[in-house]
Amino acid sequence: MKKIDQHLTFNKQFWRSFWRLLKPYWQSEEKAFAYSLLFFNLLFTFAAVEGNVALSYCNKNILNALQHFNQALMWKNVMMMAIVITFMFLAYGFSFYVNSLLALRWRQWLTKNTLSQWLTDKNYYRFQFLAKKVDNPDQRINEDI
C-alpha cells in the first residue's frame, strides 16, 4: 500500500482561496451581526485570558500567605480566587456560546446562499450539457453544504 504524503502549505494561493471562501459572508447582509459576534467572541476570549493571569496572581498570593502564616490574607485570596474562577467560567461559557452562534449563522447563510445560486435560473439543468457527466449533482451540493 502506497502512502500518500500531502502537506498543507500556507502559500499565497492558499490565502487567496481562503479569503475567497470567507469574503462573501463578511460582506453579506449579515455582516453587522457577524462582526459584532466576532467582537464579543474576542472580548470574552481576552477576558478569559485575563482571568488566567489573575488566577496565577491569586495562587501566588495564597502560597505567600501560607508561607508567612497569614490566615486573613490567605482567606481573602481564596475568596478572590473563587470570584476569578466564576468570572472565567462565565467568560469561557459566553465565548463558546458566541462562537457557536457565529458558526451556526455562517452555516445557515452558506446553505441559503449556495441553494439560491443552485436554483437561480434553473442552473441545475446545465449539468446535462457538460462534456463530462456529473453523477448526483444534488447529492454533491448537499455534501458540500
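The above is record 1. Record 2 follows with the same two-line structure.
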Amino acid sequence: AGGADNVLALRGDPPRGETTWRAPEGGVRSSLELAELAAEAGFCVLGAAYPEAHPDSRGWTEDLAHLRAKVDAGVRVLITQLFFDNDDYRRLVDRLRAGGVDVPVLPGIIPIASVKQIERITSLCAASIPAGLRRELALRQDDPRAVAELGVAYATAQAAELLDEGAPGVHLYTLNRSPATRAIVSALRAAGKLGAATPAA
C-alpha cells in the first residue's frame, strides 16, 4: 500500500544476548519461507548470500542447495553479507555460477565507522578483517574520525574495483549513518563508476 516494490528476505539474527536463533511461535520459520510469501505477494524478492561461511553453515553443498531453493522460491537478486576481501566475493560468484545459480549478486559493502562496532558485527556474522586493514584500524583506534575516514576510503576502493569488474551494483550497509554512504556514492559517481544523480526539481 505504501508503494514498496522490493523485499529483502532475511531470517535475522538471534535477539541481543542470545546465540541461537529460534522461530517465534506461529511465525515465519526461515528466510526461505519469507521469500515465498513475499514472491506470492508480488514483490521483487532479494535474498542473502555469504561470501564467507554462514555461522550455521554445514558446508558449501548445503549452502548451494539452500541458495538454489531461495531462487526457486522467487528470489531474483542475491545480496552478500559484508566482507572486506574482494576475492571472497569473486569466489562466491564463481561457485554460484558453477552450481547453476545465475541471478545477479550484489556485493555487500560496509564503511567501518568504529573499531568496536565492526568487531561486534564481524563476530556476529563470522566475517573476517584482513590483516592489512586490521593493522590500519589499530593505528587509528584512538582517533574515531580517522577510523571513519579510513572506513569510507576502504569501502569506496572495494566498490570501485568490483564495479570495474562487472558487479551489477553495490549494496551499502549504512547502519543508520548516511554521511559515509553519501560520501561513497558521491565518490563513485565522480569517478564515473555509477550513473549521475538526478537533480531535484
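The beta strands are 6-9, 44-49, 75-82, 105-109, 171-172.
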